[in-house]
Amino acid sequence: MKGSNFLTENNARFLWHPMTSPEDSQNNRPKIITESQGVEIQDIDGHSVVDAVGGLWNVNLGYSCQPVKDAIAAQLEKMPYYSTFRGTTNDVAIELSYELANFFEPDGLSRAFFTSGGSDSVETALRLARQYHKLRGESGRTKFLSLKKGYHGTHMGCASVNGNAPFREAYEPLLPGCFHIPAPYTYRNPFNETDPEKLAQLCVEALVDEIKFQGPNTIAAMIMEPILGAGGVIPPHKSFAPMVQKICNEHGILFITDEVITAYGRTGAWSGARLWGVKPDMMCTAKAITNGYFPFGAVMLGERMVEAFEGNPSAKIGHGYTYSGHPVGAAAALACLEETKRLNVIENAAQRGTQLYEGCKALQEKHTLIGDVRGGHGLMTALEVVSDRENKTPIDPKTASTIQEAVYSAGAMVRVSGPNIILSPPLVLTEGNVNTILSALDTGFNAV
Question: Any idea what the CATH number is for the domain that residue 245 is in?
Fold first, then answer.
C-alpha cells in the first residue's frame, strides 16, 4: 500500500467521485478514510469520528461485525464465484433465497431475484413490472409513477423515476413514460399544507388525478420509498402508503417499495412496508443486506408476480447480472441476516433514533439556521438548514460546507445534501455515540 504522502498528493487527480464535479473534488480534496472500527472511522491524519452517515446508509452493524467478515473469508476459500445464470447455481444463493423468503413472509414476499446493489434492484423491479403486464396480455402498461423528492438510484430507468432534478437533468432525455406526484413533504409542498394527514390525502388525490389523466391501463407500476431518504428524510403520515397501495390495487397497478435504505431494521421495523402495514408486489433491497461489506442486492417478489411467472413457459426472464447471487455476497448476506436478527437491531434503532431526533429538535430551538427536523422513525433523521427561517430560504452551499467541516472536526461525520444535513448512523451505536453526534452538530452550528 502506498504511503500517506502518495495518497495525499494523488487525491482526486485520477479518480472521479460520484455525486460531485471533478473540479470540486480537486479544489476540495475528499477526506481520505483509512481505518474503521465499531461505529467510528479514522482519516489519514489519525482523526477519529463517529460515522453518522453509516457508510452510505448501509453499515447497519458497524465496521467490526466479525461473523460477516468470517463468512466472506470462508466463502472465498471454498468458492469465490459461480454464476446463477440458466443451468447453474450455487449452494449459498439457494440458502439465502430460503432465509429471505422466511424473513419477508410477513410482507407477503416469497421469491428473490439477486442483484449487485440498489440501482440494480430498482432497474430489475421496473423491468419485471413491464414483463408482468405483458405476460397477462396488457402490453400497453409501460408507464411508471413515483414521488417528487424520491430517490431510486442512478441507472437510466432509476434516474427516470427519481424525483430530484440533480440526478436527472444532466442525463435527459430519460426513459419516457415516467411521471411524478407531489411528495408528502410537510415543510415544502405545492398545497402549503402543514398537517401531515391532510397532506397525505392531497398527495393521494394528486395520484388519482394522474392515473385518470394517463389512463390506468397504461401504467405498469408505482414505486416509492416508505420514508424518502436521500431526498431529505421525508416520512409520510401513516395513512399514506396504505392509501397508495389501495389505489394501485383498484387500478391493476403494481406497487413497488424501494427499501434499499429502509429494509433490515433502519426504521425501527424490519421493513418500511411492515412499518406502514402494506404488502408490496415487489420490494427492492440492498445496502444493509451485506452491511456494506460486499456489493449485493435482492428484489423480493409477492404473489401476483409468482402467479404470473411460475408455471408459464413464456415467462423467460431476459435480465440478470454477472454477479446475481454471487456466492461471496450471498454468504455475507446470510451472516448479516443472522446477526441482524440476533442483535434485534430494530429495538436499538428505535431507541437511539428517538434520542437522536429529540436531540436535533432541541438543537432547532437553539439554532435559527435549523428550519426543520425530520425523522422519528428509527435511525434516519435530517436537519433542513435555512438562512431565513420565516421565509424558509435554503442556506448557501458554502455555509453548509462550513457547518459540515466544523461538525467533522468536533467528532462526527455527517452528510450534506442540498440544504439538508442527513444522519443515518449504524443501528448498533450507543447512547454516548448519539450524544457525540449531537454535541458535534451543536459545535458546527455555533461555527456559523
Answer: 3.40.640.10
